[in-house]
Amino acid sequence: MSVIFNTKVIKLGNMASTFIAEKMVILFQENAPDELADYCVLHTGHKLVDTVQVGDILVFAGIEYKIVYVGDQVQKNLGDLGHITLRFNNNCEGENLEGSLYLEDKDVATINIGDEISIIRK
Length: 122
Hints:
By secondary structure, the protein is mainly beta. It contains three helices and eight strands, in the order E-H-E-H-E-E-E-H-E-E-E.
């Protein structure tokens, strides 16, 4: 198993739960612009060491989610800004939003400050 990405949650924006209810999580590193921070799960210490691929696993709150589709800008945005949208819908509608990482359709685990978020390859 290798770790492709790892970070730690430091703050939940006031409106982040609205998106979580819609099976979406917006990640942004701790220096998110003020106009976006309220909607995001903010994190620190993010480290991206390889290319995120279909079949990799996103892990947080002890739950594993298989990656089913990687938007064209995920790699750049995750590496540069720590900013992507996680969509827990198995990409059933065939979307191709460039900054989105599509995951299997499972309930979104409760995210807490201090949680680690990782992408692993088995």
